[in-house]
Input
Amino acid sequence: MTALYNTAFLIWLLLSAPVAVWKKKYRDNFLAKLGFKLHSIPNPVEAKVVWIHAVSLGEMKASLPFIIELKREVKDLEIYFSTSTVTAYNQAKKVLKENVDTIFYLPFDFSFLIRQYVKKIRPDLLVFVETDLWPHLMQLVKEQKGVVALINGKISERSYKRFSRFPKLANWILDSLDIVCCQSEEYKKRFLACGVDEQKIEVTGNLKYDAFSAPKLLLQARKEKRRFITLASTHENEEKLLLEALASLEEVTFFLAPRHPERFGKVEKMLKEQGISYDKFTKLSCGLSKATKRVVLIDVMGELDKCYALSDVVIVAGSFISKVGGHNIYEPIRFYKTVLFGPFMHNQKELVNDVLAHKAAVQTSINQIHEDVKRALVQPIEKHLLEQFETAVKGASTRSLKIIQKKTEIFQKVACHKTTSMLT
Output
């Protein structure tokens, strides 16, 4: 299986390399994943080392409460944090810098490459957040007597079908997991069906609910008469679809926030072609609350909280086209805002079920959204429903950490000597 995996990975790498080398935004990322930045990763100095991997921005944000609780509960701990995307890496540098010791790109999962990172970092505990499991990384950590855990675990419907067709592949990937803290009973059933030992699995809830409450400064009552609507995490074609569907709304400014920064220019071009008046956030001298044009293009990452705080309604995109599968609809709910989202939420099923069960958001369609937004501007979701929902769903970080502490001895011992002989 290892030889087949390495061959498939190599073929993929050769096919993707020209694009990565050609586009500057991917170049440093690509070189780092080839191991060229290994020298910049410091050797651990603390007695206990935890390596946490979160593939992209959503998983990175979800991991923060867990990381802070881990630091609070476990002393003399060094945390290495890896990710795979440019956006997540840049945001991690801002958001996690006070809570982790080292941030780096996860290298490609070739055994000869990963071996060097494991040998240098020597983790007592390797933690994956949600998905993105890498077989060689897990196997090499276990070879050096480390523990491998998955928090906020899930198996998407697509992955479940793939694992069902190739059970040997599923076993090869999942067998290295020592602890699985999964989001729901449904995901627990999928892990069991894929061959994971039931003794390894616990249902702990969704880490994304443990995102910190909105900053009090941003929760202050706003006095602006103009209405604001955030279009969050939009993908290709969604901007045009949504703006056209909501075109007849009057006295409204849209905060338009594309999901990926490489699309900022393309979205601006679309606004020009459609004759829509707009400002760019980075050029807005008066501040968001004083914006009067039809659209403010949020052309920088990390500013969505400000948009949510000012908005009367938030529409979370990635859910009006079928290929994405939805994004985190809980983030704007933290601000006690009326949140709407589309019909295509197949990657966020548990989140949708929880939110709708508590009447904490509205699921709509592109054909119905105009009427639903008009209604939301007049009759927003009552704050006490959002507060009840928030109280009901929190606690996954604490539960996950307790499970890991219970099922492993690494937090009770001081690892004065790291075993590396099996890696040489």
